[in-house]
Amino acid sequence: MKAQPSKTSIATGSTPVDWAISDGYVDYESALKVMSHRVVAIREGKAKELVWLLEHPPLYTAGTSAKDQDLLNPNALPVFRTARGGQFTYHGPGQRVAYVMLDLETRGRDIRDFITRLELWVIKALAEFNVTGEIRSDRVGIWVKRSSMGNEVEDKIAAIGLRVSRWVSSHGIAINVDPDLSQFQGIVPCGIRDHGVTSMADLGLPVSIYDVDVALRGSFQQIFGPTKPVDPPQFDTDPGGEAL
Fold first, then answer.
1. Catalytic machinery residues
2. Which of 62, 64, 120, 172 is the most core-located residue (most Cβ within 10 A)?
3. pLDDT tens for residues 110-164?
């Protein structure tokens, strides 16, 4: 089943969304700080909406629905508790994370429709590489069907974890391009035990992070409206410092 957005909700904006890409690995706590400050600034009309593409060093994050028993190897990697929805997931090199800070006050105030559009955004980007991504009503994320030992299986290729605070979104999506899939063995990804995790490399596709970035921007503009490239957010490592 593929995502289909509502035809009545206000989904696209006329003002370009800032589109930033960070090189290297971004510390997770620094990213949280950036998102927190940006969300407030967007809500107050002091900053534009932002999509921020990045990679994290290896780590696990736990959403608001995470269950302690789903952290199978608590000593394997740093673990961060976060206010996004969802359960445990892995972030690390080779995975493209896109943090999405959009003003839903001006985009229809429809969270269900917004999530559907996030799903469609990922599905359209994957289609650029002839990967058929699908959603399932009983489990979150974007899934692909493939053959394994003569059987058809469904594995997750992209995760979605969202926070909406007073109609401004944060957190977002993560697409497995070429991460170390063995790191997912330290958790029950998104609380789902009966299905595996895959990546574009695991599917035999020689796709780079840059290739995925191009596809993501193109599909985002089809669904959410125009974008404008900007420098990535600036942040410091001082807990009391400001993130811009």
1. 190
2. 172
3. 999 999 999 999 999 999 999 999 999 888 899 999 877 778 889 999 999 999 9
